[in-house]
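Researcher: Quick test of sequence recovery. Tokens follow.
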């Protein structure tokens, strides 16, 4: 951050802030291309003779690249700024998509299967695209969150992160318009179109403090290098008990503090900081004499001697429970700063983690496989199957999900700000809305058996998924604070690794169990068995009758001419419609209902805490402590 911006923030709608904001949107547009995997995944699988499970593994490693690096990138951007993220994003996206394009162009002759080494290299290329995409997104989100005031921060974050959701629509539309049916050129477009915006981000994306910044915003912003610029100590809001530092001179004789008397308070503060990592209690507050003035002043308590004050402070510190101390340190006048071990020790973190895991896993399963779902529905009882038309239906679903993903991120930001500012409710109440939309989307997908109606499930799922990831950053800020926002959000972003892996691989295994193709070579079966051993119990729910039906279809399809089979280009393809994946949808319906229940509980907890803090603020006793020499 530029020093001039830190000391003299420009107006809210200044040119430098707007340019940075627009560049953040552009970078986000180039960062969300892991959602476009369904637009080229089936073609890549057909070219390299991959099973649905293998295709899901490739797609999942792109998501793993996004979410597994989130804590690391978040910690770096909190300390170093967004510029380094743009460099990582440029090289990750460019090399990743060029590598995938190389494998697609090389292809495999008929009858051959991909080797283990080549498959791992392909997986690594998709992993690089995830690393690069997340680097761009983390840099843009960090700059946005720390450049806009609280009352419209959710809206600003929602607009930026909506670009991440719109990315798939943008690039799939470009490919469908300029390179219809040409997957190689599409992959080249992805390589160039995603890496070039990162160069602009390197030069224009900046963290710019909001204008008219007060002590609360200063503490939230996490840039308290020199509190004297604003005349207050770290982490203290305008209405909170405030520590005013006063130099010792002849006019402040009664505020002086002996070196010997400093030892006990400093030891107490240091011990407290090591155990609970408090928001208040920094070196600034211990470097000079101080007096404490709470926000409300109904009574005054004076300490005539320093010895009496020391006894009073010692007694108070001993009588205060650790839970009470931690509660006070976690939140002072609405300014929260919870991170590291303290965040992992909170129930709020694990509730949010479970909700995000269940809902994002459901969303990723659908997004990564909507192309396969559309092809299965289009091929069912269709003697006039055409590969070009199938690709058009596939691209339509990807574009629909992407558009609704974008819209959902914008709408949830506006809704969250409205919920807090107008309804006077915590933003966490929006979790209930998002989870309910996920439930409805899965029920719709379960009921649809015609390709012409699949757009309904895509619309609902896209809105819900966009709403989830548009809401999560704001919830993380509200619950854990802004100072370590990117790092905290990075840890929450690990949640899709669990739900996404289990649900997506389960979907692939379920689809392969209904496959019309021959078995894979032993080497590939071994690779899949190793990769899926952790989820074998969830991934094999197929009843015996379904297995027999699959055998009958396999035998029948091999004896029919290709026109009777609908002209399906790949032998490894399910052609029995919704029965190909309906068992997986049953699992996600249950998962989203569980997430809805957790969302209700989380919002209730948040409302109860909000009222608790409000009552404490209204009834806080007034204390003035004067420190004097003996």
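Model:
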């Amino acid at each position: 951050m530029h020093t001039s911006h830190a000391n003299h923030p420009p107006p809210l709608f200044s040119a430098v802030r707007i340019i940075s904001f627009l560049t953040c949107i552009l970078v986000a547009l180039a960062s969300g291309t892991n959602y476009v995997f369904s637009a080229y995944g089936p073609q890549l699988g057909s070219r390299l003779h991959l099973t649905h499970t293998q295709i899901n593994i490739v797609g999942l490693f792109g998501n793993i690249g996004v979410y597994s690096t989130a804590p690391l990138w978040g910690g770096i951007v909190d300390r170093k700024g967004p510029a380094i993220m743009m460099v990582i994003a440029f090289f990750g996206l460019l090399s990743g998509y060029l590598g995938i394009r190389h494998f697609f162009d090389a292809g495999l002759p008929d009858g051959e299967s991909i080797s283990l080494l080549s498959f791992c290299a392909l997986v690594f290329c998709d992993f690089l695209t995830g690393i690069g995409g997340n680097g761009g997104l983390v840099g843009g989100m960090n700059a946005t969150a720390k450049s806009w005031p609280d009352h419209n921060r959710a809206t600003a974050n929602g607009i930026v992160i909506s670009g991440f959701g719109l990315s798939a629509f943008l690039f799939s539309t470009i490919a469908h318009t300029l390179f219809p049916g040409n997957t190689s050129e599409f992959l080249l477009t992805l390589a160039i179109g995603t890496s070039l915006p990162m160069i602009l981000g390197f030069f224009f994306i900046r963290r710019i403090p909001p204008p008219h910044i007060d002590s609360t915003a200063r503490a939230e912003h996490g840039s308290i290098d020199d509190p004297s610029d604003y005349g207050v100590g770290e982490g203290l809001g305008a209405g909170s008990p405030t520590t005013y530092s006063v130099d010792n001179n002849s006019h402040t004789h009664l505020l002086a503090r002996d070196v010997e008397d400093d030892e006990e308070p400093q030891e107490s503060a240091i011990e407290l900081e090591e155990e609970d990592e408090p928001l208040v209690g920094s070196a600034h507050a211990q470097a000079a004499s101080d007096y404490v003035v709470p926000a409300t002043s109904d009574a005054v308590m004076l300490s005539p001697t320093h010895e009496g004050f020391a006894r009073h402070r010692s007694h108070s510190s001993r009588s205060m429970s650790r839970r009470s101390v931690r509660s006070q340190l976690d939140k002072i006048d609405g300014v929260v700063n919870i991170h590291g071990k303290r965040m992992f020790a909170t129930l709020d973190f694990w509730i949010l983690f479970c909700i995000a895991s269940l809902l994002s896993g459901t969303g990723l399963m659908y997004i990564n496989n909507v192309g396969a779902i559309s092809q299965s529905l289009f091929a069912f009882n269709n003697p006039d199957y055409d590969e070009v038309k199938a690709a058009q239906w596939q691209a339509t679903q990807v574009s629909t999900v992407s558009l609704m993903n974008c819209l959902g991120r914008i709408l949830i930001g506006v809704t969250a700000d409205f919920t807090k500012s107008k309804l006077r409710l915590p933003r966490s109440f929006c979790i209930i809305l998002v989870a309910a939309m996920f439930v409805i989307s899965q029920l719709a997908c379960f009921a649809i058996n015609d390709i012409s109606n699949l757009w309904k499930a895509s619309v609902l799922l896209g809105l819900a998924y966009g709403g989830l990831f548009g809401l999560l950053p704001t919830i993380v800020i509200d619950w854990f604070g802004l100072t370590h926002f990117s790092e905290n959000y990075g840890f929450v972003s690990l949640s899709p690794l669990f739900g996404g892996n289990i649900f997506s691989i389960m979907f692939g295994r379920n689809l392969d169990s209904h496959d019309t193709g021959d078995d894979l070579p032993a080497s590939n079966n071994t690779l899949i068995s190793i990769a899926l051993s952790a989820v074998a119990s969830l991934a094999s729910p197929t009843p015996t009758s379904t297995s027999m039906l699959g055998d009958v279809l396999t035998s029948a399809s091999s004896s029919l001419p290709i026109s009777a089979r609908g002209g399906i280009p790949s032998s490894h393809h399910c052609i029995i419609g919704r029965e190909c994946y309906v068992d997986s949808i049953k699992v996600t319906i249950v998962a989203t209902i569980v997430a809805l229940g957790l969302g209700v509980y989380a919002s209730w907890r948040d409302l109860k805490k909000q009222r608790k803090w409000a009552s404490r603020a209204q009834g806080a006793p007034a204390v003035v402590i004067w420190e004097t020499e003996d």
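The longest helix spans residues 582-618.
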